[in-house]
Design goal:
Elements lengths: L5 E3 L4 H31 L7 H26 L17 H37 L5 H22 L2 H8 L3 H14 L1 H32 L6 H32 L5 H13 L4 E3 L1
Antiparallel strand pairs: 1-2
Length: about 280
């Protein structure tokens, strides 16, 4: 019997993934936070001509480096002091460079298509805001385009990127397999999305409350606007790091090859939680 292409996990996995990722952040969060902070700083430079293009091409390489660090820490159960997560870990593997950089070029092409799609509506929106009005139709079109763009990229890369990172091979094959696995596990992943949305709303509430408090306390302090932004930025970076952990855990439970250390981690996790998974040939 041939090895199944991927597993279909139960809906309750969404919550279990959140709990496991939270535990990882408690043990290895510092190293992952530092690496994510560096990635966040690189993202802040993407609007600079030429440099932004280069960062875009290498962005999947950096993301893969984070995933490799997370996967290594989870599989070997290393202590916090032994965990070193490096954005360039994937670059050190020649077999990963080409597919990841091709993915970066593909994402840049998608971003250009997206920009062309919303250009006219975005211009109308900017002109309306400058005039003190809100062009509702243009605003709705821009929001719809953003939602479509983010959803397509998110669904395609959620399991596709770790599939390239940990199994290599053809870019098209890895993305296609990851996409099929994502769609087949829509129940568990939708539940995960709901929990993430709830967590994001709580985080937004906390950021808002802290910002208001700091504005009241530091109203007379110079550069108060910059100061009150710091806690919010740190929360956002922490959430991004948390999402990278979730991404690896989802891939491990759905797509990691049978008979590997990663697959053993799946079996251990399933036996502890007394869950059952089905497989798709």
């Amino acid at each position: 019997m041939s090895e199944p292409e991927f597993r279909i996990v139960e809906t309750a996995k969404g919550m279990q993934w959140m709990v496991e990722a939270w535990g990882f952040m408690g043990e290895h969060g510092k190293s992952l936070f530092r690496a994510t902070l560096l990635l966040f700083l690189l993202w802040s430079l993407v609007r600079i001509p030429v440099l932004g293009m280069i960062i875009g091409v290498f962005d999947p390489v950096f993301r893969a480096g984070l995933l490799l660090g997370v996967g290594s820490a989870l599989m070997r159960q290393a202590g916090p002091q032994a965990t070193k997560i490096n954005l360039l870990d994937a670059w050190k593997r020649p077999e990963l460079r080409q597919p990841l950089m091709l993915l970066g070029l593909a994402l840049i092409a998608v971003s250009f298509l997206f920009a062309a799609w919303v250009a006219a509506d975005l211009q109308l929106l900017q002109e309306g805001i400058a005039a003190g009005t809100l062009p509702v139709e243009a605003f709705q079109q821009v929001l719809f385009a953003i939602a479509v763009n983010v959803s397509l990229i998110g669904v395609t890369l959620w399991l596709g990127l770790p599939e390239i990172t940990f199994r290599g091979g053809s870019l098209v094959t890895a993305i296609s397999r990851g996409l099929r696995a994502t769609l087949a596990n829509w129940r568990a992943l939708s539940m995960l999305g709901l929990w993430l949305a709830l967590g994001a709303m709580v985080a937004l509430l906390v950021i808002t409350m802290v910002t208001i408090m700091l504005l009241n306390v530091l109203s007379a302090v110079p550069l108060v606007g910059m100061i009150v932004l710091i806690p919010g930025v740190f929360v956002v970076i922490y959430l991004i790091a948390f999402i990278f952990v979730l991404q690896f855990i989802c891939w491990r439970d759905i797509l990691s090859p049978a008979g590997t250390k990663m697959d053993a981690g799946v079996s251990k996790n399933n036996s502890e939680t007394e869950t059952e998974t089905s497989v798709v040939a």
